[in-house]
Design a protein that fits this description.
Blueprint: H1 3-19, H2 24-40, H3 43-56, H4 65-78, H5 81-93, H6 99-112, H7 118-135, H8 140-151, H9 161-170, H10 174-202, H11 224-247, H12 252-269, H13 275-309, H14 311-322, H15 326-341, H16 346-363, H17 368-381, H18 390-399, H19 406-429, H20 432-435
Helix pairs in contact: 1-2, 1-13, 2-3, 2-13, 3-13, 4-12, 4-13, 5-6, 5-11, 6-7, 6-8, 6-10, 7-8, 7-18, 8-19, 9-16, 9-17, 10-17, 10-19, 11-12, 13-16, 14-16, 15-16, 15-17, 16-17, 17-19, 18-19
Length: about 450
């Protein structure tokens, strides 16, 4: 059996095992070990590869960015920063057509700029925003759809765990990836806001239950000073972390440390942290960090197995012979990523496709920072599409409302999926949107 055949069969077996429910990191490790064993015909070579990858994959201090930003996200969630951001946006935008939907997008963007976890955004705003929109007469499908759609901002607006994972897999600067994600994230949020206004104006029944507008519900308006105090922690965190990172005052790892320190001060100042919640935050941070570490270790083994098989070089030569240029390759790549997003989770997609596709992207001379932004947006579309749609399942389990079915949530997300696809096309054909904030966009 040739090395190319072994690598091809390993890919098929990997998809089958992941779909069957086996953890992606375990699948990567097992398939890579067996693949190296078959390619070299020596089990000791495969065992040595496992040992070497385990030692090398996460040895760099740069990896400290993962637990620090995860810790920041858990702390601000306890401090109700997301809830406060929604209350401020709600009061400012309530009078607009679709105002509560726009408020949800705006507060999700703020929350994303602090946490970087889409699933956390989906869970928080399902509890905070959906009941408020239902109370004001918004269509239930729209209410859950806008939460699901805007939750993906958590993986695009930095800090982003998905971008951190891409940075390790592609050997690219996490700080540059964070910087490159700012403008695309804001463009996507703006597209959602404009789309909501258009839906509320041209197709009101898709937004409101009565098709006319939001119900007037008596609510106490908060004074300006209270609004400022509610928004202040978010502003301080964003300016300190992203501002310091962009200005070059500190690295991505140091930015994570600054964010965690400020988040700890905020949660202590609000008296939201006790010994029990502190222990919960630390253990959850440990669980996420270990999970990501294991993924990166096994992805490293998988990448080395593919390199040993010659599969990346084979695919580069094959695509060159087919006459596919950069645009043709990118169309196939994006279609593959979106299709995989319908059946497996975001991290699994990156771990499976990047070791194969990055050499081809490099061969075509593509900027790997821009390629990373395009990849993240394409992958995140999968969070909204059936049958997998992880954000949709999180919203359903968090909502616990039998009147809103899983199908209702998927139908509610459709307009936002289409908007996200339009933004993806814009990012593909106008790369400068992703590179404009970088000091050396051609590098």
């Amino acid at each position: 059996m040739s090395a190319i055949t072994v690598a091809s069969l390993s890919l098929l077996l990997m998809l089958v095992l992941i779909w069957a429910g086996m953890h992606v990191a375990v699948v990567l490790g097992i398939v890579s070990f067996v693949g190296v064993w078959l390619i070299r015909g020596d089990v000791s070579v495969a065992a040595n590869l496992l040992a070497t990858a385990s030692q090398d994959a996460i040895a760099s201090h740069i990896f400290g960015v993962v637990p620090l930003f995860v810790l920041t996200g858990f702390l601000v969630a306890i401090a109700d920063v997301g809830k406060d951001a929604f209350e401020v946006a709600n009061q400012l935008l309530r009078r607009l057509r679709g105002g509560l939907g726009i408020a949800t997008v705006a507060s999700n963007a703020v929350f994303a700029a602090i946490t970087g976890i889409s699933i956390a955004s989906a869970a928080v705003f399902t509890r905070v925003a959906v009941p408020e929109m239902l109370r004001f007469g918004y269509n239930p499908r729209f209410a859950v759809g806008v939460v699901a759609g805007s939750s993906v901002l958590g993986m695009l607006i930095p800090p982003s765990l998905l971008m951190i994972l891409y940075g390790f897999l592609a050997n690219q600067s996490v700080g540059d990836l964070f910087t490159a994600g700012i403008v695309p994230g804001l463009v996507l949020a703006l597209a959602y806001a404009v789309g909501i206004v258009l839906m509320a104006t041209l197709w009101p029944r898709s937004v409101y239950v009565n098709g006319e507008g939001a119900r007037a519900v008596d609510a106490e308006l908060l004074p300006v000073g209270t609004l400022v105090m509610k928004l202040l922690p978010s502003v301080v965190l964003i300016v300190a972390v992203l501002g310091g990172l962009y200005a070059g005052f500190f690295t991505a790892t140091e930015a994570g440390a600054v964010g965690a320190a400020i988040a700890l001060v905020i949660v202590l100042a609000r008296r939201k942290l006790n010994l029990r919640s502190l222990w919960s935050v630390l253990t959850e941070t440990g669980h996420v960090t270990v999970s990501v570490s294991f993924l990166i270790i096994c992805a490293t083994i998988y990448t080395r197995m593919l390199a040993m098989s010659g599969m990346p070089q084979f695919m580069v030569e094959h695509m060159t012979q087919m006459g596919l240029g950069p645009t043709g390759f990118l169309i196939i790549y994006v279609a593959l990523v979106i299709a995989l997003g319908m059946i497996i989770d975001s991290s699994s997609i990156l771990l499976i496709v990047l070791p194969l596709m990055l050499p081809i992207a490099e061969q075509f001379g593509m900027n790997l920072i821009w390629f990373g932004v395009v990849t993240v947006v394409a992958v995140e579309i999968g969070l909204l599409t059936p049958p997998f749609g992880l954000s949709v399942y999180v919203i359903k389990s968090t909502l616990q409302d039998s009147r809103i079915s899983l199908g209702d949530i998927f139908r509610g997300t459709l307009p936002f999926t289409l908007m996200m696809f339009a933004v993806l096309l814009l990012l593909i054909f106008v790369p400068q949107i992703s590179l404009v904030l970088l000091k050396a966009p051609g590098g």
